[in-house]
Fold this protein.
Amino acid sequence: MPTLIHRRVAEARRGDNPKVICQTHARWAVMGDTQFLAGYCLLLPDPVVPSLNDLTPERGALFLREMTALGDALLEVTDAIRVNYEILGNLEPALHAHVFPRFADEPDDLRHRPAWFYPKPRRPGFDLDRDRPLMQKIATHLKQRGVAAG
């Protein structure tokens, strides 16, 4: 059964996914549906596989390098003080990596907790007009470091 990740990758292939930051060698760097932490991104493999363990060692290493490069980009182009990485797959059983910038000015009750603890009213949705400049900065960073394909 196709997951949300399968659908998002298919949209990216068709050029119909407005959240695509850029294509990478592993495949797609995209913005998160919500931006409760400005710059929240995901890395989506293409083709989609169930888990990191379903990639060849070479493709797995590439995926993890690009996930880290996405985090490096967020550290460079935002005021983030650190980056959190998560590969879960329990809800969406398809490989995808969450890359969360974390900020010094986050509320005290949330700063040291997983990003998922942010309450829904504080989770603004992706907005292309608002988020486009940040997406371009991230893409530029990834291109300069040879992570972006093409």
